[in-house]
Amino acid sequence: MDDFEDKIFNNDPIYMRSLVGKKVELETVENVTHSGIVYVIDPIYKTVVLHSKLQSEVGNETIFVLYHAIKSLKVLSDEIEESYINKFEETQCSSDNGEKKNVLKKMAATYVY
């Protein structure tokens, strides 16, 4: 996978991690624009998961954008949404497997499907 030129993320996992919690706008190759807060970026397959606030509802819309569909990525705000960073750190810092399992269950329960 390293044999191609990555024009979006420059094969830089540190840059990908720095985008978590920031508001971005993604344009796809089909000229569809998605904007939202980056929840996670898979450093291997470069799939981006965005949370977009729904205007008519209280929850978030979760959007998955596969790397091959991304035409451009623009950071709209350098401010980091702290709740996204804290969830990640809670999961990493926990040493007890049972505790990790409970944290992941709570995170999964907060998603709007």
From TrEMBL:
GO terms for biological process: spliceosomal complex assembly; spliceosomal snRNP assembly. GO terms for cellular component: nucleus; SMN complex. InterPro entries: Gemin6. It comes from the Eukaryota. This is Uncharacterized protein.
